[in-house]
Design brief:
Layout (H helix, E strand, L loop, with lengths): L7 H25 L3 H14 L2 E5 L14 E7 L4 E9 L2 E10 L6 E2 L4 H12 L3
Antiparallel strand pairs: 1-2, 2-3, 3-4, 4-5
Length: about 130
């Protein structure tokens, strides 16, 4: 008899990206119907869903140089399982965001997503920028 161990971190990533896709579609519908109050409530709930949002800059030759953030990290869940989004920033917002999951004793792993899921992930990250 073979037993299969459930990957809770992967299951968490799958459920989270599905929710992001649903929220993205809902936001588009609200925008089309000009329901800005509901759209604001949706985006506020997204802002409240993150445990932390962090930014970091690159290397500089002088401590007095003005810095701008180059990377970001949005922590969605911590512990076992953990879930985060990482990516780069440009002048217009997040680029190349990646959804990553991790469980106790395992490395961060990129979750492979479809093009529709990538659109939803980009939208989700832009809510924080």
């Amino acid at each position: 008899m073979t037993t299969t161990k459930t990957n809770h971190a992967l299951q968490n990533a799958i459920a989270t990206i599905e929710t992001m896709v649903e929220d993205f579609k809902k936001d588009q519908q609200l925008q089309e119907s000009n329901d800005y109050d509901q759209q604001d409530q949706l985006r506020e709930s997204i802002l409240n869903s993150a445990l932390s949002v962090e930014f970091r800059s690159g290397w500089y030759s002088s401590p007095n140089e003005e810095t701008t953030p180059e990377e970001f990290r949005i922590l969605l869940a911590w512990g076992g399982p953990a879930l985060r989004i990482i990516g780069e920033l440009d002048n217009y917002g997040p680029i190349n965001p990646k959804l990553q999951y991790q469980d106790w004793g395992t490395p961060w792993t990129d979750y492979e997503i479809t093009e529709d899921q990538q659109d939803a992930l980009n939208w989700f990250c832009n809510c924080f920028y």
